[in-house]
Please model this.
Amino acid sequence: MTFIENESTPTMSSPHRIVFANEKGGTGKSTTAVHIAVALSYLGARVCAIDLDPRQRTTHRYLENRAETLKRRGLSLPIPHCEVFRGSTIEELDALVAQLSQDCDYLIFDTPGRDDEFARYVATGADTLVTPLNDSFVDFDLIGQVDAETFKVRRLSFYAELIWEARKKRAMATLQDNRREMDWVVVRNRTQHVEARNMRRIDNALTELSKRVGFRIAQGLSERVIYRELFPSGLTLLDKGNLGDLGTSHLVARQELRALVAGLNLPAPKSQRQARPAEAVNG
Model:
């Protein structure tokens, strides 16, 4: 995957804000955020991340582990900069965002898996909002409620209404501030063990709701042991020269990641640093 500048993929003059948000835990949000951050770094982009969960700080811990592994093994691999937000006001968060925005192309936010003031704030200001969901109606309930008999969408959830209103306000202001409209991407993680009939029902419900609310649907990361195994080292599937022998399932997982990065349709950075070899992301 490479950045291709065209009419649908504009360059940017300020950091593109990618927010990984879901008020439910256990959806692969932090794992997805870290892998996307590293993938963009491999492509030569300057990437900063803000972890909004100061208790678990999964993204920050992952990248801490990565820094320790690189130092211990004497490796030179791309590593995004990450800060944990420990403030108590929106003004403090804005100050941290302003500080990091001075030297990055993409600013990634990893939010806690619960209702949170700061998570709502960054979600409504996202350029690209990524909402990972497991393929279950338990997770679907975050964005919409379905009829128990027909599985038709009955109503939007509070969260979907929040994002819908934010997107409408953003669309009205787009012409004035020259920012992109918010792109909301619902990412379907962990689909490989879902029963076929239930998957079809979720397919139909997501498609119906996407037409109402305007989000896009992307295939995400399947449930694979490799993601859990990589956390202690901070390595990712893209660091394949340092992972030893990978089985076929891991090769498929890397292909899933490449497809997800491409599917986010992110704008190209205004200026790129020297990228790593293309096969790091494409191979």
About this structure: Confidence is low (pLDDT under 50) at residues 1-12.
